[in-house]
TrEMBL record, chains A, B:
Record key words, sorted: ATP-binding, Ligase, Nucleotide-binding, Transferase
Source organism of the structure: Halostagnicola kamekurae
Enzyme class: ligase
Record-level Gene Ontology MF annotations: acetate-CoA ligase (ADP-forming) activity; ATP binding; metal ion binding; transferase activity
Xref: InterPro entries: Acyl-CoA_Synth/Transferase, ATP-grasp, ATP_grasp_subdomain_1, CoA-bd, Ligase_CoA_dom, NAD(P)-bd_dom_sf, Succ_CoA_lig_flav_dom, Succinyl-CoA_synth-like
EC numbers, comma separated: 6.2.1.13
Span of domain ATP-grasp: 487-523
Reaction(s) catalysed by this chain's protein: acetate + ATP + CoA = acetyl-CoA + ADP + phosphate
Annotated protein name in UniProt: acetate--CoA ligase (ADP-forming)
Classification via Pfam families: ATP-grasp_5, CoA_binding_2, Ligase_CoA_2, Succ_CoA_lig
SUPFAM superfamilies to which the protein is assigned, alphabetical: Glutathione synthetase ATP-binding domain-like (SSF56059), NAD(P)-binding Rossmann-fold domains (SSF51735), Succinyl-CoA synthetase domains (SSF52210)
Length: 698, 698
C-alpha cells in the first residue's frame, strides 16, 4: 500500500464520470472540488469536451497525471475504470459508485473483484459506496454532500455517509473544525485501521473520531490503536451496541455482527474512548482536541451558583474524575480573596454577586493548587457578571497554568459570543454542567489510556507439538469436540490438572487407581455424551477395590443410554479435597471480528444467574489477566472474603495467560470451556474440559 | 393554608422594600413587575413618596389591599413585616430577603420565628432567600432575575435561584414556555409538596418540573405525587445523587441529606420521572408537555439515513422502549410505496433520495400499524429533502394519528426554522437521535407510572399492644436494642419464627427442649453481645439430655467473655432443617427524609459482597413487596433455579408486608435486622433479630 497521506494531500484530482448534468453526483463532486481546492481538477468523461468550464478528457491515459482519482461511473464500469487507474500508475482512489456488497450477491461478487484489482495494482481504495473524502488542509472537498468542513484538528471517519452530512451542518454551526473526513463506504480495501494508522502519524490530527458499524479485523485494529493512542486520542461511536441496534446494523451494512461484549472489551483494550451518541462523540472530541491531558483526576469546580455547583459535583461523582481536596494554602488564599458568605471548599461557590474578576481570582488560586488536575467553571447569568469578560479572564487564567479548563456558561443568547472567545482558545463551553464534566472525563479516560501498563503477553514454555497432536484427535471423531480424555491438552500448556487419565479397560483403571493416592473419581469419556452426571456417568470417592466394577458399570450405563455413542473409556482421576477451594470458569469463544475472547467467572450461580463474568481479547499480559479476575464482582470470594481461605490468585492469573497463549497459538480452537477451574489456596486446577475445534483449520 | 392559586394569579402585588436605588433588588423586582403584569403594583417604603413612577406607601396598612406581598426589606425587619402582612389580612407572601437558615444559627433562629408567624397568621410564604416567582398566565414576573419566562405549559420549581436564571436564558432561546416558576428558597413554609399539589390541580400545567436538593417530608411528598402523577407528569432533578454531590448540597443549603437510595426509591414510588442533568430535565419536559401518552412501548423509526437509524435503534435498546414489529399489512404497504433498496423493517430506511412526501407516506403507514405506539423521525440533510417540508408533513401526518411523534432532524442552521414549525405543533425536535429517543422514553416511563398498580398496603390482624409492651422492654435496658429474646415482637405481627423462647435457668431450658420435637439450637441472649457465634455463644443440634449442661456452659462463656454484660438467659429454639431453604435478609432503616426504608436481599455474599439488595419506603402493598424480591438479581434462586426446591415466595412477600406494617405502626423503631429470614418450600421464618428503638418516641 502506498503513502496514504497523498490521499488527503493530492496536487491533482481526476473525477472519472464527471458531468454537468443537474442533480448528478458526478456534477456535485466536481462543483465541490472546484471550490477552495488549490490543486488541479481533471474531469474525465468520454462524452464531454468540457465540464463546468474544465477541460474534460476521454480517459485517464489521455488526461494529465493525477495523484487521486474519484470514481463516479456506473457500477458495471467501475472495475474496468479501476484497471485503467492501475495501469496509469495512480495510487489513490475514492469509489463513490454504489451497487456493491450492500446490494446482494451480484454486488458482492463485483466487490470481491474490485478488491482483487486493488491488490494487483496496489491501490489505496476508499469505498465503494462512499460519500467521498475531505481534507481541509488543502481545501479539498471530494464528496457529493451539501456541506463542507471548516478547518480544525479533528480527523473523522464514518461508515455512514448520512452521518457525515448530518454532523457537518451542525458542526459548522458550532464552528467545530476538521482536518480529514472520510466516508468509509463498504471498506472493500481501506478500512478503519488504515485511517487510524494514517492519522496517528499525522501531527496535525489532534483527535481521531469515527462512526463505525463494525470493525473488520479486530486484532489488527487493537494493535494499531494501542500504538496510536499513546499520542493521539481516538473516540468512536460503534453502533449496534444493543441487540436491536446490532440487528439494524447488520441489515444496514450486511456486516456479520461480532458480539457487543467483544467490541466493548476490544475497544477498551485498543485504548479507544467510546461514545454512545453523536452528542457524546463531539462533547468528547471538543475536549480532546484542544486541551492538555491532566496530571490527575482531581477537579476543581468554581461557580457563582450553588445549585449548578452541586449538579456539577454530581456529574463528577458519576465520572472517573474526583473532586479535588484543596491544600491549606489554597483554602487560605480563597478565604482571603472571597466574601465571607462564599464557600471555599470544592465546589468553590463565589456567590451570586461575583463579577468576572472574582472568578479569575478563584480560578487562579484553584489551578495553582498541586492537588488540582483540571477545572470546571460554571456560571449562571447575573446582573453583575458580563459573560464576555468571564470568557476573557478564563482564557487568561488558563494560560498561566498547564491544566485543562472547561466551562459551563449556562445561558442561551448571552453565552454565544463568549463561547466563540473560549473556542478560539481551545476551551470548550457546554450549556449543561454535566456535559462539561463528561468532556473533562473523556480527557481523564484518555489519560488512563496513556498511562495503562503495556506488559507484553508472556510466552510460557509449552509443548506446542503435543497440543497439536491432541487437537488432531478430533479428525477421527464424529463431532469436533474434545472432552475430559484430552485434559493432556491443558497439561501441554502447563495448566495444572488432577492426576489421572482415560483408560479403556477395567484392569488399567484399577492399576491407575492404585497408583493414585486415596479414592478416585471416575467419569465416562465420550465425545457424544455431554451431561455425564445426568446419566450416572460420574462416580466419586471410589476405593481402589471397586474401580474395576465401577468401570464396567459406567460403560454399561453409557451404552444403555446411547447405544451408538463413541465411548473412549473411563477417566480415572485423583479425588481432590475441594473444601476451601472456589470453583471458577475459564473459557474462550472465538469472535468473528476480534478473535479469541477469553472469559472468566466464578462457578455456579455467579455465571449462570448473576452473569458475573469478565472478558478480554487474547493475547493478554499479566496485568490484563489480573484485571479479568478483579472485574468479576464476586472476586472478593477468591481473595478470602467471609472467612474463606484465600485462593492462590497468581495461579489463576497464570492459567488465564496460558489459555491465552494456547488459543492464540491455535486459531483452529473455536471454543474452550474449563468448568470448573478449581482455585485453591495452593494452585488452580482444571477439572473438566470441553474444546471445540475447526478441524479444517488444523 | 389559603388558596395557593392566588399566589400565582393575584390582582394586585405589594413590593415591601421597593426602591429606585440602582442595583437594588427592591428596584429590580419592581421593574420586573411593572412589565407585562396586568394587575396593580403597590410599592411600600416609608422613606419614599413614589418609586419608579408608582405611588409609594409608608406601610401596608395605609396601602391599598393586595393579594400578594413580595418582601425585600433587610433581614432584621422581615419578621415585623410578616406580622404586618398577617394583620393586614394578606395571605400570600414571597420573602426575597436572604440571611436566614442558610447563614448559621442566628439566621436559623430567625427562620424558626418566621415559620411561627406564618403559622399564626396562616400565611403562604415562599422563601426566604428566594429569587421570586413568575406566572406567565397573568404576565407576572415577581423575581429580581434578568430573565422572564415565555408562556407555556411547564410549571417549574427550583431550590436554586441561579438554576432558574441559568435555565431561562437558554429556554427563551429554545422557545420553551412556562406556566409558573417558583424559586423555593429556604422552603420555610411552602415546599415542593405544596407546589406539586397546586400544579396537580391546575389544568393549564402540562408537566411539573423541578430542581431539588432535598425533600422535606418524604412520605407526604410520595402521597401527594402519587395522586398528581395520575394526570400530570413530574420530572425532577434531585441533586446530591453522588456522595460528593450530597456533601456539596448539604454545604449549599444546610439540608440534612437523606440517603440517595431512599431518594431513588422514594421518587420512583412517588411516580416521579427522574432526570440527571439540566439537559435531560428539558428533553423530558419537552416530550411530556406536548405529546399524548403512548398506548404501548413499541416505537417505529423512519429515517433517510442508515447510520443514524442504527444509532436510534441502539438508543431504543438502551431505553424502556422497544422496536415495534410491523404487521404484514404494514410491511406490504411500505414495500409498495418505497423503492426496492429501502428497508421496510423497523428501523424503516427510506434511503438517501427520499423527499418529504416519501417520509410522510412511510410515517403514515407506520403510525397506522396497531403494533406501533410512537414514532421517531430521523433525518440527515440531503439535496432532495427540504427540512421545512419535512416538518410540515410530520405535523400533518401526526395529526392523523393519536400517537406521539418526536423528530431528530439532524443539522444546524437548516434545522432551525423547521424546528419552530414542529414546536408550535407540540413536536419536540432533538439534534441527537439518542436524545429524541430519551424524550420518548420519558413519556413511556410516565405511561408506566400511570399504569402502575396501586394496591393499598394490606392491614393484617396483629397484636399491636403486645408489640408495644415488647418494645418498651428497651426502657429497662442499658442499650436501646432488642435481640433474639424478643422474637415475640415478630410473632405479635404474624411473622413466623421457630418454636422456642428465652429461658433463664437450666431446668426451664431442659423442659422447653423436651417440649420441642428433636434436637434444639441454643444461643446466649444478651443485648450486649452482638456476635454470638464468635464467642462460642451458639450451640446447634443439642439433644434434650445435654440441654441443661449446655445452658450452664453458654452462660459461663458469656460471663467469661464480658463480665459486665447484661445476660437475659439462653434462647432454646427448634432445630430447623435448612436443606432446600434459602437465607434471606429483611430489614428496615429509618431515613431522615423518607422514613422507614425496607431492605430485602439474599443472605451471605449476596448482600455483603454483591450488594444485591432492594429497598422501598414503607408502607407498601403486595405488588411492591413482590417487586422487592424480583428486583434482587439473585431472586431466581428463590424461584428454584439450578435444581433447587422453589421457596414459598408468597410467604416472603407476606413477611415483608407485615414488617412494613410493624415499622409504620411504630415510628420509634429505628432499625430492624431479620437475618436470616429463612425461605423454605413451605414458609418463611425469622431466625434471628436485632431491633433498635428510639425509647423517647415510645
Amino acid at each position: 500500500m502506498g503513502r496514504l497521506s497523498e490521499l488527503f494531500e493530492p496536487d491533482s484530482v481526476a473525477v472519472v464520470g464527471a458531468t454537468d448534468r443537474e442533480g448528478a453526483v458526478g456534477r456535485a463532486i466536481l462543483e465541490n472540488l472546484s471550490t477552495g481546492f488549490a490543486g488541479e481538477v481533471v474531469p474525465v468523461n468520454p462524452n464531454r469536451e468540457t465540464v463546468l468550464g474544465h477541460e474534460c478528457y476521454p480517459d485517464l491515459e489521455r488526461a494529465p497525471a493525477v495523484d487521486l482519482a474519484v470514481v463516479v461511473v456506473p457500477p458495471p464500469v467501475v472495475l474496468e475504470t479501476l484497471r485503467e487507474i492501475g495501469e496509469t500508475g495512480i495510487e489513490n482512489v475514492v469509489v463513490i459508485t454504489a451497487g456493491f456488497s450492500e446490494t446482494g450477491s451480484e454486488g458482492a461478487r463485483r466487490e470481491r473483484e474490485l478488491r482483487e484489482i486493488a491488490e494487483e495494482y496496489d491501490l489505496n481504495v476508499v469505498g465503494p459506496n462512499s460519500l467521498g473524502i475531505m481534507s481541509t488542509a488543502v481545501g479539498m472537498n471530494a464528496t457529493f454532500g451539501p456541506e463542507r468542513a471548516i478547518e480544525g484538528g479533528i480527523s473523522f471517519m464514518s461508515q455512514s455517509g448520512a452521518f457525515i452530512t448530518a454532523v457537518l451542518d451542525w458542526a459548522n454551526d458550532q464552528e467545530i473544525g476538521f482536518r480529514d473526513v472520510v466516508s468509509l463506504g463498504n471498506k472493500s480495501v481501506l478500512a478503519e485501521t488504515d485511517f487510524v494508522r494514517q492519522w496517528g502519524e499525522d501531527p496535525e490530527t489532534e483527535v481521531i473520531i469515527g462512526y463505525l458499524e463494525d470493525i473488520d479485523e479486530g486484532a489488527e485494529f487493537i494493535r494499531a490503536s494501542r500504538d496510536v493512542t499513546d499520542d493521539t486520542p481516538i473516540v468512536l461511536v460503534k453502533s449496534g451496541r444493543t441487540d436491536a441496534g446490532a440487528h439494524a446494523a447488520s441489515s444496514h451494512t450486511g456486516a456479520i455482527a461480532g458480539s457487543e461484549r467483544a467490541y466493548e472489551t476490544g475497544l477498551e483494550q485498543a485504548g479507544v474512548v467510546r461514545a454512545r451518541s453523536v452528542q457524546e462523540l463531539f462533547d468528547y472530541a471538543r475536549a480532546l482536541s484542544g486541551l492538555p491531558v491532566p496530571e490527575s483526576e482531581s477537579v476543581a469546580v468554581v461557580t457563582n451558583a450553588g445549585g449548578p455547583g452541586v449538579l456539577t459535583t454530581d456529574a463528577v461523582g458519576d465520572s472517573t474524575l474526583e473532586m479535588a481536596s484543596f491544600t491549606e494554602e489554597t483554602l487560605e488564599g480563597l478565604s482571603e480573596s472571597l466574601p465571607e458568605e462564599a464557600n471555599v471548599y470544592n465546589p468553590v461557590d463565589i456567590i451570586g454577586d461575583a463579577d468576572a474578576d472574582r472568578f479569575a481570582e478563584a480560578l487562579d488560586t484553584a489551578l495553582a493548587d498541586p492537588n488540582v488536575g483540571s477545572a470546571v467553571v460554571v456560571s449562571a447569568p447575573t446582573a453583575v457578571l458580563a459573560y464576555e469578560d468571564l470568557a476573557e479572564v478564563v482564557v487568561e487564567t488558563r494560560d498561566r497554568h498547564e491544566k485543562p479548563v472547561v466551562t459551563a456558561m449556562m445561558g442561551g443568547q448571552r453565552a454565544r459570543a463568549p463561547e466563540a472567545t473560549l473556542r478560539e482558545s481551545g476551551i470548550p463551553n457546554y450549556f449543561d454542567p454535566a456535559r462539561a464534566v463528561s468532556g473533562l472525563d473523556a480527557l481523564a479516560r484518555y489519560r488512563d489510556v496513556r498511562r495503562r501498563s503495556r506488559d507484553d503477553p508472556a510466552t510460557f514454555d509449552v509443548d506446542r507439538e503435543r497440543a497439536r497432536r491432541i487437537l488432531e484427535r478430533t479428525k477421527s471423531r464424529s463431532g469436533n469436540q474434545l472432552g475430559i480424555e484430552s485434559m493432556d491438552l491443558l497439561e501441554a500448556y502447563g495448566i495444572p490438572t488432577p492426576e489421572g487419565a482415560v483408560v479403556d479397560d477395567p484392569e488399567s483403571a484399577r492399576e491407575l487407581a492404585e497408583s493414585i493416592d486415596g479414592d478416585v473419581v471416575m467419569k465416562i469419556a465420550s465425545p457424544d455424551i455431554a451431561h455425564k452426571s445426568d446419566i450416572g456417568g460420574v462416580k466419586v470417592d471410589v476405593p481402589d477395590a471397586e474401580v474395576a466394577d465401577a468401570y464396567e458399570d459406567l460403560i454399561a450405563r453409557a451404552r444403555n443410554y446411547q447405544p451408538d455413542a463413541q465411548i473412549l473409556g473411563v477417566q480415572v482421576q485423583e479425588s481432590l479435597d475441594l473444601d476451601g477451594s472456589t470453583e471458577t470458569i475459564l473459557g474462550m469463544n472465538r469472535d468473528p471480528q476480534f478473535g479469541p475472547l477469553l472469559l472468566f467467572g466464578l462457578g455456579g450461580i455467579f455465571v449462570e444467574i448473576l452473569e458475573d463474568t469478565s472478558v478480554r481479547v487474547a493475547p493478554i499480559g499479566e496485568t490484563e489477566a489480573r484485571d479479568m479476575i478483579d472485574d468479576v464482582k464476586a472476586s472478593p470470594l477468591l481473595a478470602g472474603a467471609r472467612g474463606r481461605e484465600p485462593a492462590n490468585t497468581d495461579a489463576v492469573v497464570e492459567a488465564i495467560q496460558r489459555l491465552s497463549q494456547l488459543v492464540t497459538d491455535f486459531p483452529a480452537i473455536l471454543e474452550v470451556d474449563i468448568n470448573p477451574l478449581v482455585a485453591g489456596p495452593d494452585d488452580a486446577r482444571a477439572i473438566d474440559l470441553v474444546v471445540t475445534v475447526d478441524t479444517e483449520e488444523l
